[in-house]
Amino acid sequence: MTKTKSKNTRKRGMLKRFVRYYKPHKTLFIIDMVCAFTISVFNLVYPYVTKEIINNYVPNKLLTMLLAAAGFLFGFYLLKAGLNYVLHCWGHIVGVRIQSDMRRELFTHLQKLPFAYFDENKTGVIMSRMTNDLFQIAELAHHGPEDVFLSAITLVGAFAVLGTINIYLALIVFALIPFFVVYALLIRKKMNAVYKQTRIAQGEVNADIESAISGMRVSRAYTAKSHEEKKFDAGNDVFVESRCKQFKLLGKFHSTMTFFTDFLYFAVLLAGGLFFYYGIIDVGDFTAFVLYISTLIAPIRTLITIYDQIQEGATGFKRFCEIMDEQPETDRDGALSPEHIDGHIVFDNVTFGYKNDDDAAKVVSDFSLDIPAGKTVALVGPSGGGKTTLCHLIPRFYEIDGGSISIDGHDIRDMTRDTLRKNIGIVQQDVFLFNGTIKENIAYGDFDATDEQIAEAARQANIHDYITTLPKGYDTEVGERGVKLSGGQKQRISIARAFLKNPPVLILDEATSALDNATEMQIQDALGKLMGGRTTLVVAHRLSTVKNADEIIVITQNGVEERGTHELLMDKNGIYKQLYEYQFKNL
Asked: The whole model's pTM is what?
């Protein structure tokens, strides 16, 4: 009993959440409902007028009344046509606007979610929720209330009018309707589960497609066409299987409900014929009854048709709510927003592990490091020591499990994330460029920057001269993920971003490791200018790039193994010297 109550409470909560999206569009929604109500009333008028024509106007040769009734009906039909236009045009617009509001809210919420969420959820699955799910929700937002309301009014009105003709015949007809409701409730639970499986399968297919298209160059380079096709086929087969289950249930539901409606029509013809035969009703009443049953069957069929749409929309809204219920990044009450940051960074016994790690497999354990403002510290060592992870902890991309990280004496958890991240510039090995122009990508450093400031940042990054050789200059489209540019060009654009941002703290995460020697020299020159006067944390495997760092920290899976200047570490004859000599043994 408690479980049932809890389930009903959740349903009411979901319905309440859904209804609130109508509030900004309540005027259009009310107009839509008024039109639906008026149309349903009009549908009830036609059989009644027909009854009067058959029983009264024609037998009594009342030509004037007959023509008046015909004119009345024609006027109703013209008005009904106008109402249907409003219903189908502006009703859909209400659905599209609600979809737009939800998409905006979802996109804004995604911008606030922690990085861990995106580590655990595929991009294609998220895209599926923003496109397919929201489309189904929009269709439900329009057709759901409108069709249900129109059908309910028609059903109630038809019963009321039929009751005035002959209450016993009306009761016979409506006694069959509960069977529709019981059957629909019995099959609903199965359909809910199948619809959810279909949505999950569709999201996985979208994720596979997104991954395959993004990695097209890699799959072509490794002639992995067959492998990608097999992987896609596997996901696609799961989708087809779940879709087939869905359509089997739908087929069962529709065929049974169609039989019910046909049986209802059959019952009226049989019962009405018998009533007419025994003189309980006249020919006009019998005709009106048959017409009202046609009017009655139409909303029942509408409810049958919209049932799968309601299921699709409800499932989509549940999946939408699942993302919206994910906890976003939050700042502490009274979080600090210092106007100026010098960049004195202190790691104090920092411990961190990703969500799926156990205590014995922490990526960072009891790590301590003091980086004075304006100094350059390099993190070197074999992969797996947590160097990149440390870079991600400073801007709070992930929350530490223990210890503290402070900047200028302020625990970063006591600072707002916006303030923290505005004061940190990051240049990574894997440069991400947005689909847009070169100018737009550099402007990510400062969206308020002028064209001249953007050009100056490009000059400092040694990319301005190249940009000016392009036909469209700074307005040149870079293509998806910067596919139209070389690795060095993309890297220099990311450096230009950092110059434009002008942050007091700079993080260089393998910024040159994927470049050839000639390009690396150009990048190093730009980075050298960028690092001037800033607190800089450098992660590098090429030890030649960190020789001039104020301090070099050698990190392995055991933690900090060595620290000191290049000369001091070479004199120690330890891990750093072994790594350095290994890299340059063939030179």
From this structure: 0.74
